[in-house]
Design goal:
Layout lengths: L1 H39 L5 H7 L2 E4 L8 E6 L2 E7 L2 H8 L23 E5 L10 E4 L4 E3 L6 E2 L5 E3 L11 E5 L2 E4 L1
Antiparallel strand pairs: 1-10, 2-3, 3-4, 5-6, 6-7, 7-8, 9-10
Length: 179
């Protein structure tokens, strides 16, 4: 009888251990699930992180003459792969004749003249200008008629200033980072 009693006592001890472990695990899960919303609210949401995060663009697939559109910090940005003719016409302009005088060299990175990066909203009222349009084959605002050249400089119309250049840097010959 002593033998059967010790076996059942050992079984009871094992069941008790299991109940303690199961209860402890359930309590840990309950505490974690209660604390998780409080901990997660301290981190910024994905939209906030994405709004200020720099954006990297691979320039390899962008064909000469093509304009790529993307968003950074909620603003439209144009990345234009300019042709040799577009670069020449932008350089040959008499800067003194421009409403907002700025040389082409001040709007691109040295040695990377073929890449122009500008914000994609007209400086008049914020409309989105259309690419490869207008008398200078840069951009033209369809709403109020502002015309920008291939360097994003205002040439005609009510826009008071050139298309702004966002902060950007070349990470390599084929990759830029905006922001």
């Amino acid at each position: 009888m002593a033998n059967s009693g010790s076996a059942s006592g050992h079984t009871e001890h094992t069941r008790r251990d299991f109940l303690f472990i199961a209860t402890g695990a359930a309590a840990a899960v309950g505490v974690a699930s209660t604390l998780w919303p409080f901990i997660s609210q301290m981190a910024p949401d994905a939209a906030t992180v994405a709004a200020g995060a720099p954006v990297e663009i691979d320039l390899t697939p962008v064909a000469e003459g093509q304009i790529v559109k993307l968003f950074w910090r909620g603003k439209l940005v144009f990345v234009r792969h300019r042709t040799a003719a577009e670069i020449k016409s932008a350089r040959d302009v008499d800067v003194a004749s421009l409403p907002d005088p700025q040389p082409d060299s001040a709007r691109v990175k040295e040695g990377k003249d073929q890449w122009l990066v500008v914000y994609g909203s007209c400086t008049h009222l914020g409309c989105v200008p259309l690419g490869n349009e207008g008398a200078f084959q840069g951009w033209q605002c369809p709403c109020h008629g502002s015309v920008f050249d291939t360097s994003g400089r205002i040439r005609q119309g009510p826009a008071p200033t050139n298309l702004p250049v966002p902060p950007y840097a070349f990470l390599s010959d084929t990759k830029i980072q905006i922001g």
